[in-house]
User: Fold this.
Amino acid sequence: MNGWSALDRFLRTDPRDVGCAEAMDLLHVYAELAAAGAAAAERYPGIAAHLRACGPCGEDFDGLLAAVRGAAD
Amino acid sequence: MMPGDAAAGGITPPADLDADSATWVRSLTGPAEQREAGLARLHAMLLRIAHSELRRRSGQLRITGPELDDLAYQAAADALLAIMAKVGQFRGESRFTTWAYKFVIFEVSAKAGRHFWVNPPVPMDAEDWDRLPDRFGLEPAREAERRELAGAVRRAVDEQLTPRQRQVFVAIVLDGVPLDALAVKLGSTRNAIYKTMFDARRKLRAALAANGYLDDQTSRRT
Assistant:
């Protein structure tokens, strides 16, 4: 991996990014759509942008998705 | 006061709830005997999710054995209280269980953030810029490129960031402090630290682009 391109990727910000508070507020809705195979990112592009950039919220989303999928198994 | 007292009083679930969610809401807000059974069922579910989430995160957490079990119990207990305080606000945007899982996942995150400081791997005041190239995957053999990248970013940090933005950038990027752990340390919130870092990233990228290190395209939409 090129260090500059990795740095560039890290520093780029998406103006659609809604931030942690809004993403956390709607995470259950987003996760359920994602678990159902619905177009969660298209419906909530600001949350999708946030989850790509925010490690902790992305981790929470992964955990919630695993829980939803595990319960459905 | 037992969990649920604040929520008791016969809350009528929204009419369009799915049957399972409506059953949950009725059981958690109904008469005492029914509520106790609901609370026990909810606690068992939250504890199961807390355990599985801690297992899923075990690679990042330096916690094992009884301590891990304690953390799971604490997360489940705190999530239970938070859910019972808000069950009257549940409007059925998702299934009740998905909504409830969210509380316990957030509790696991918060507790992992606090636990980081029990035995932090690096001191927070160690501002070691030599670590920066490693953070972005530059191999030790590429010495000249490593020096250039670290020097350019350090100059941009010194010239562009506020003291708070600099503190957050150094802690997260150089010291590798997880964002939630940093929020605990600074008495802040995840949202506030993320926003500080977001603004710092935007300023640093603009400065590095202006100095020819990065291309000057506006933020890429992926």
About this structure: Residues 55-72 of chain A form the longest helix (18 residues). Chain A has one domain: 15-72. The mean pLDDT of chain A is 94.
